[in-house]
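Protocol step 4 of 5: obtain the predicted structure for the target chain.
Materials: sequence only (see below). No template structures provided, no constraints applied. The aim of this step is simply to have a reference model before the mutagenesis design in step 5. Sequence pasted as it appears in the construct record:
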Amino acid sequence: MNRCKEAEGGQRAALTGEDLERISRLARRPLKEEELYAFSVRLCDNEIDRDWERFSPETLKGLAPLFVGKSGIFDHQWSARGQAARIYKTELIREPGRLTRAGDPYCWLKGCAYMVRTQGNRDLIAEIEGGIKKEVSVGCAVERAVCSVCGQPWGEGSCDHRKGERYDGRLCYATLEGAKDAYEFSFVAVPAQPLAGVVKSAGGWRELAAQVPGGARELEELEKEAQLGRQYLERLRGELVRQAVLADGQLEEAVIRSAAGKLSHRELEALTASFARRAGERYPLKTQLRYGEQAAQPREGDRAFLV
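Step 4 output (structure tokens):
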């Protein structure tokens, strides 16, 4: 299953001795730093893209070594004439505190590429430095695409869900699993993955937000709201576990907690309410004071004290 996934493409990279050694393994002869131009690219990430697809973190991890040694070309035209760069190192970058639309921690695959400085690629280097050549796309192969709604291979067998649609509040998208091969990365005009491409700086979203009036403040508010949302979900998961154990003493807490981590907030609320009703039936509340019952008659021995 072949896929082309675009992103945004670099930050000029300073070469270390280890980098030069890695590059020399790919070259016919050892190359000096002054002969090279190096830059980094955001190859792909685990966010849901414009095609309503996403790479799983495990797939990104599997693709990392497969991209080492692969060429940088243009518009996926597989011709030696268009070869412009080569990836010599990759790294899986994780951004703590940031979640994808799918609800898991955000991460992306960084590729470090090099070019040999020549008269022919001088203009390309200038375009990369000037931000003209920026967006990139990767060509790779995966084993399967899994539907987010039913967990089946997307579009096959019993799966008749449509990507981008919602089913009982759940967004349908395909998760690309099982890295098989990596072919190349290309400079393109419009990427499927909005963030893929030449890395401009390490600032990420905060740097982008700072370029918009009031953006930094708005981003800070959004992060606070996201934190409150995560705290609410965590409390909701804990309440689901508590009610489930009360409703059915045979359920293992670890199993319920694991299952709760995969549910949406609506599913958590619905299951918590259901288990709460069952727990109420199992342990009904009994009042200590009773009203409307006939008053007890005094015993004969107590009549002497009645006035």
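Step 4 remarks: The chain has a mean pLDDT of 78. Residues 215-282 form one domain.
Proceed to step 5.
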